[in-house]
């Protein structure tokens, strides 16, 4: 039976330094991930709510009510609903400053 071994100091240490630019880049990346995750959770939650679907996407609501299966994968098979969700992200992208969109 084979094993895995870890050899200490097998590679030279990285000569880079933790500069303010690196810290700022990490913070912006983390904030972007947090905002994207929050936005995705909110829009996904709203588009799966029965009152929202009943009012704005009645054909999807009807399909959901008829589906008695337990499989949640691809439950909402509607290109119009996908277009709506995608438009939220495109609208947010349009609000970014021009220097950030380059």
UniProtKB/TrEMBL annotation:
InterPro entries noted in UniProt: MFS_trans_sf, STP/PLT_plant
Bilayer-crossing regions: 20-40
Alphabetized UniProt keyword annotations: Membrane, Transmembrane, Transmembrane helix, Transport
Gene3D superfamilies hit by this protein: MFS general substrate transporter like domains
PANTHER family: SOLUTE CARRIER FAMILY 2, FACILITATED GLUCOSE TRANSPORTER, SUGAR CARRIER PROTEIN C-LIKE
Protein name as annotated: Uncharacterized protein
Domain of life of the native organism: Eukaryota
Transmembrane helix is among the record's keywords: yes
Coiled coil regions in record: none
Family: Belongs to the major facilitator superfamily. Phosphate:H(+) symporter (TC 2.A.1.9) family. Belongs to the major facilitator superfamily. Sugar transporter (TC 2.A.1.1) family.
Organism classification: Eukaryota, Viridiplantae, Streptophyta, Embryophyta, Tracheophyta
